[in-house]
Amino acid sequence: MTFAGVLGILTVIYGAIYHLISIVYPLSTFFYACLILSVLFVVTLIAFVTQLYILKKAPDYSIHIIVSAIIIRLLLFGVFNFFLIWSNRSLAVENVVLFFAVYLGFTLLELVILFRQITGLKAS
After folding, report:
1. Which helix (H) or strand (E) holds 114?
2. How far is CA 114 from CA 4, 55, 78, in A?
């Protein structure tokens, strides 16, 4: 299965978990949950494709490329979280917790698949 397919399935799973939890304990509005999931999906997919392209050109710098991508995304997502907090202060904690829970899952998925690709590139 492709990375985009697995990432899409993980997005749907996160959305379902969010919906089930919000029945018992309302966490955030549906708009913010969809916004967070969609922004993370798109940015993670773009970052993965970009890293894969660069890694095929320079597989010796794999760790540098991956760490640099994580740092750049954390800085950009810091700005995104600032706007989440600023736009709705009453749900700031819930939105940021949801964001980082989804970010952790997406980043772990990305790292696992990238490391499989790296070992395949270095073996050949």
Report:
1. helix 92-123
2. 13, 9, 24
Compute φ and ψ for 27, nearest 5 degrees. -95, -50
Q: pLDDT tens-digit profile of 60-69?
A: 888 899 999 9
Cβ distance 40 to 6 under 8 Å? Answer: no
pLDDT of 97: 86
CA distances in angstroms from 78 to 3, 72, 89, 103, 113, listed in the order given: 25, 10, 16, 12, 25
| Residue entry with tokens 């997005």 | 11
Q: What is the largest CA-CA distance in the chain?
A: 53
**At 123, is the pLDDT very low, low, confident or very high (cuts 50, 70, 90)?**
low
Note whether 93 and 34 are within 8 A (CB): no
Q: What is the DSSP string of 24-41?
A: HS--S-HHHHHHHHHHHH
Residue with tokens 């919000």: 22
Helices (H) and strands (E) in the chain, counts: 4, 0
